[in-house]
Amino acid sequence: GEPHAELRIRKLCLNICVGESGDRLTQAAKVLEQLTGQTPVFSKARYTVRSFGIRRNEKIAVHCTVRGAKAEEILEKGLKVQEYEMRKNNFSDTGNFGFGIQEHIDLGIKYDPSIGIYGLDLYVVLGRPGFSIADKKSRTGCIGAKQNQQRGSHALVPAEV
């Protein structure tokens, strides 16, 4: 149909929260690097939580944002692990969706005993051409009502992917 009405993947966010700094976190970063071919970014804890054993500003997670063909490829692997099934509450109001994977080796990375096994979260942000006008710094625009009809239209996405 209309090329500007087609939903596409704007970005895929991958996140591994280890809950501690140190070796396990650097190994989790290696996992993301193997998966994406990009250098991942470390996330810090916002608060000190004694019961979790984390301190404020301590690095506790790694994340990475992937776009383009690479994002489609990783999402394809992730959905295959999920057997292309998702619950309704995996989808947000705006039609984006996310899911978790318990073992990263399911995505086709070879198991390395020195690294171990990590779970990761994948979050997919969908959009149409022109959505970036809402994100730019100066002269931000609003996405028109017709272009922004995302809710409900994501029902088509799993069939295409």
TrEMBL record:
Gene3D superfamilies: 3.30.1440.10
Domain Large ribosomal subunit protein uL5 C-terminal: 59-139
Keywords per UniProt: Ribonucleoprotein, Ribosomal protein, RNA-binding, rRNA-binding
SUPFAM superfamilies in alphabetical order: RL5-like
Domain of life, per lineage: Eukaryota
Matches recorded under InterPro entries: Ribosomal_uL5, Ribosomal_uL5_C, Ribosomal_uL5_CS, Ribosomal_uL5_dom_sf, Ribosomal_uL5_euk/arc-type, Ribosomal_uL5_N
Gene Ontology cellular-component terms listed: ribonucleoprotein complex; ribosome
GO BP of this protein: translation
Domain Large ribosomal subunit protein uL5 N-terminal intervals: 3-55
Gene Ontology MF: a single term: structural constituent of ribosome
Entry-linked NCBIfam families: PRK04219.1
Subunit structure: Component of the large ribosomal subunit (LSU). Part of the 5S RNP complex, which is a LSU subcomplex composed of the 5S RNA, RPL5 and RPL11. Component of a hexameric 5S RNP precursor complex, composed of 5S RNA, RRS1, RPF2/BXDC1, RPL5, RPL11 and HEATR3; this complex acts as a precursor for ribosome assembly. Interacts with PML. Interacts with MDM2 (via its RanBP2-type zinc finger domain); negatively regulates MDM2-mediated TP53 ubiquitination and degradation. Interacts with NOP53; retains RPL11 into the nucleolus.
UniProt family annotation: Belongs to the universal ribosomal protein uL5 family.
Protein known as: Large ribosomal subunit protein uL5
Gene source species: Microtus ochrogaster
